[in-house]
């Protein structure tokens, strides 16, 4: 077996870096600013260790544009580099000075970089890169390093007279957008807004209003405040974001203010969770519960993922369960495994642990809110309900926790836990198979007549009116031993099936006459059946098969084409209602019988708002005629 070493052609390295290392070209600024932050953090670590005994002084990182020279400069006042360090870390791709530093100082260093590749992202936008640096070490000489995007470089004496490093990018012609103030400020706001070292991007005009010093004569109005404008440093970032602070030191207003900082145009959140864990992994963050009573999709991608305060992504589906993507906020963890470009997550056991931890904390928060102040929890249920139900149908572990605080709301606007509701309806809504039957409406206004009919029989009716309720009902049926039926799935007497038989008041000939007539009137839109209901029940009712309707709704929810499934229903004629006998059987005028049957059928359709515009007009005209 022959052995050897893989050969890497150095002349091919830069084209690969330029085109394929990073998913987005704009990430170069994040990488270079992160390196500047690392350089400053290293100096502070050396100062704490007593190895650097000088004055740290100003630690601000400057971002500077020179449009005339076509340069973009990232300046730090950090650790700097000696000539030997420049040769070691800049001339060898993928050799990380950050990793060397972490290996040496371990727990006392919070360093962003690890791969030794971030610096080379500069060549994605620059034809030439200069490094002008001066080390913190006594007696160090300034060093200048120049590279034009190929394996050759120049190194020599620099002219920097203060500690730290300038990275000077000579921006290429195809990247001149990065010489625009608005472009750079936008990228800094995206990637650097919470970095732990102040980031300065020029100056800005700050306007204040000061009280006039003109003496006020008694009886005269006080002069208007004086407008004062002055130039101040434009500090882009908040170096001490809320999630890095001790929750015990924070007020509700602090959390609300930070939410406005994250989402200036957002509605105030309902409440929040402050995440803070250091074992078995490090993770901090704040998750906010927004109002999600509306659509699901519009709320997604509002959680921002950071690693050591460096923005990574807002696509966090790999680290939080899908239902938690409805939350807003920030998660920061140095233990989240990232790919080389820090653009997305890599599969890792830590990710599963973090996912489980976040799910558990969310469930604990909701449970404590429910137990500590149920009245307030119920008041928020219109917004919380979608979130909780979504979690229950998508996460097994969350279902087990959430079944204690998920609420079922009835048409009296009263809310119950699952166990409370089962106990409430068990006596009156247990069928002949010993199944507890939950009766619900998907649209209380549209199904008002049917809801009223069920309530008249002593039944309790739930409101399950959101798209998420269809799969939620199925989860409850699978795990809670209940069966759910919609108010239009059967006539009121059959919503909860009992061993009761009613006498049919029509003979066989009369039954045939009534069924044939209604079959003709209904046509292919539905199936007609005669039933011996109570004499006070409506003469004609529309019912839909629960199984078929659910199957169609689930397919619609999944975006499937349901055109092959027509909206079929059963037309139940109450053979015991006296109107059927009086207006159908006892009417010798065949045309009048047909007219009456059509009217009763359309009245049933109207009760569920199933009439088309033309049918509704015909119904109204017929009603007026009959009244005359």
UniProtKB/TrEMBL annotation:
Keywords associated with the record: ATP-binding, Chaperone, Cytoplasm, Nucleotide-binding, Stress response
One Pfam family cited in the UniProt record for this chain: HATPase_c_3
Protein name according to UniProt: Chaperone protein HtpG
Similarity field: Belongs to the heat shock protein 90 family.
Binding site for ATP: 31, 35, 76, 81, 165, 342
InterPro entries assigned: HATPase_C_sf, HSP90_C, Hsp90_fam, Hsp90_N, Ribosomal_Su5_D2-typ_SF
Organism annotation: Neolewinella aurantiaca
GO MF terms, alphabetically ordered: ATP binding; ATP hydrolysis activity; ATP-dependent protein folding chaperone; unfolded protein binding
Claim: Plastid is one of the keywords in the record: no
PANTHER family: HEAT SHOCK PROTEIN 90 FAMILY MEMBER
NCBIfam families: PRK05218.1 (NF003555)
Membrane-traversing stretches: none
